[in-house]
Amino acid sequence: MPQTTATTTAPLLPVPGSTGHLDAAFLADRAAIQDLIAAYSLYYDSGDFDALGDLFTEDATFTFTPAPEGFPPSVTTRERIVFAMAALYRHHTGTRGAHQRHLTSNTVVTRLDGTTAEARSLLAICFALDDGTHEIGRSGSYVDRLEKDGQRWRIASRHVWFRDLPRIAATTPDGPEGAA
Description:
Blueprint: H1 24-46, H2 49-53, E1 56-65, E2 74-76, H3 78-95, E3 98-112, E4 116-129, E5 134-149, E6 152-161
Parallel strand pairs: 1-6
Antiparallel strand pairs: 1-2, 3-4, 4-5, 5-6
């Protein structure tokens, strides 16, 4: 499968490590986005699907590449996402005797403007089995497109890549258009 570059309409941020764009509003938005991404794992792993659903926009899309066996490659709308994720949760806990632990790390906000953003995170899924053992189930990457409504960020699109990690469009040392 070829590597894909996923983008949003928000401008690409300057290279990691640069500081010119780090004002208070950006830092607050970045912290809120990172909390949102972490909350997904906590809510899913605890089976709190009402709270999980509240993290998504009404018209959100959730895509898997490749899809887990027996699972659709893409689900659209908050209601259908919650239904599908709850079914996957029940499958793992009931059928396999396994409780998932999503370990999300290395979250980087790659694009951000006032109302849209993109974030990339690495993912490892561990299973805590009923017999007390653990196993690593999958690893991959999240590519999240986020939308802000008032003071609240939500996931508008989540793409989980279990095989290839999608490329991030290149930046110049001075930012996407060559300006600091």
